[in-house]
Amino acid sequence: MAIALTIAGSDSGGGAGIQADLKTFSALGVYGASVLTAITAQNTRAVTMVEAVSPAMIRAQIGAVLDDLDVRAVKIGMLGTADATLAVADALRGKGLPLVLDPVMVAKTGDLLVNEPAIAALQDHLMPLATVLTPNLPEAARLLGRRPVTDEGEAVAQGQALRAMGAEWVLMKGGHAEGAICTDRLIGPARHDFSAPRILTRNTHGTGCSLSSGIAAGLAKGMSVPEAVSAAHGWLHGAIVAADRLTIGAGHGPVHHFHHWWPA
C-alpha cells in the first residue's frame, strides 16, 4: 500500500487543507496520514479564526507517523508561522522523502493564512528540501518579490528563479491567469506543459491543496515527477468539471474529489 503524508492546516468546511488532501489520497488509491499545523474556523465564505498547533506537537506528530508508517511521499501545505515551518524542516531534513511544497499564503476567500516571518522561513529552510514547489502566480511573485506574471515567458522565468532558490522542480500553476485554456508549467531538469480548457465555476475551493496532494500521491506510487503531475492534473480537471454537481455552502464550494466514484 502506497502511503503519503500531508502536513497542513485543518479546514473545518472540509474543502481544502488536511481534509482535501486526505480526500485526494483516497480518491487516487493512496493511504493518507496527516500532521496538523493549524486549526482554522472557516467555511466557503470566510476564515473567521486561525489557531496554530505548537511546534513541539508538530514534531511529535511527524515523528509518530515516520516511526511506524512506510511513508513514500510528503505534501506540505499551510504552516502559518515561522516556528511551525522550522519544526517541519527540521523533522524532514535528511529523511530522503519526496516533498511536494504548496506555499499556501491566502485562502480562496482572500483571508491571509501566513505571516511574513513564515514566508522567509519557507524560502530559507523548506524550498531547498522541495522535490516539487507548486505556487500559483501570486504566490510565485510573492516568493520572488516581483509582480505576478502576465505571459508565458515571465512564467518560465519566474519558475527558473524559484528553482534557483532550491526546489528541484517548480510547477507554475495557471489558474490565476486568463484565457480559455489553463496551462500549468512544470519547470525542472526538463520542461513540461499541462493544459486543459478553463472551467467557468466558482466552486474551486481546495484546488491548490488537491493538486499538490495529487502529485504526492503519484510520487508515493513510484511515478516520476512529470508522470505524477500529469496524473494529478488530469484528475483535478475532472474534479473541477464535476464541482457544480455538489451544492456545498454559499461561497466558493469545493471541487468534487470523488467524481470517479459517485455522482452528486
Describe the protein's architecture and organization.
This protein is an alpha/beta fold. The protein has a single domain, classed as UDP-N-acetylmuramoyl-L-alanine:D-glutamate ligase, CATH 3.40.1190.20. The protein has 8 helices and 9 strands. The protein is globular and about 45 Å long.
Summarize the SSE layout with pairings:
Layout: E1 3-11, H1 17-27, E2 31-42, E3 47-52, H2 55-68, E4 73-76, H3 82-92, E5 99-101, H4 116-126, E6 132-133, H5 137-144, H6 152-163, E7 169-172, E8 181-187, E9 191-197, H7 207-220, H8 225-241
Parallel strand pairs: 1-2, 1-4, 4-5, 5-6, 6-7
Antiparallel strand pairs: 2-3, 7-8, 8-9
Measure the end-to-end span.
29 Å
| Total domains | 1
Q: What would you call the shape?
A: globular
> What's the total number of strands?
9
CATH architecture assignment name: 3-Layer(aba) Sandwich
| Strand content bin | 15-25%
- Average predicted local confidence, pLDDT: 93
The helix/strand series, from N terminus to C terminus, equals EHEEHEHEHEHHEEEHH
Cα-based radius of gyration, to the nearest Å:
17 Å
Look at the helices and sheets and give the structural class: alpha/beta
CATH-assigned homologous superfamily: Ribokinase
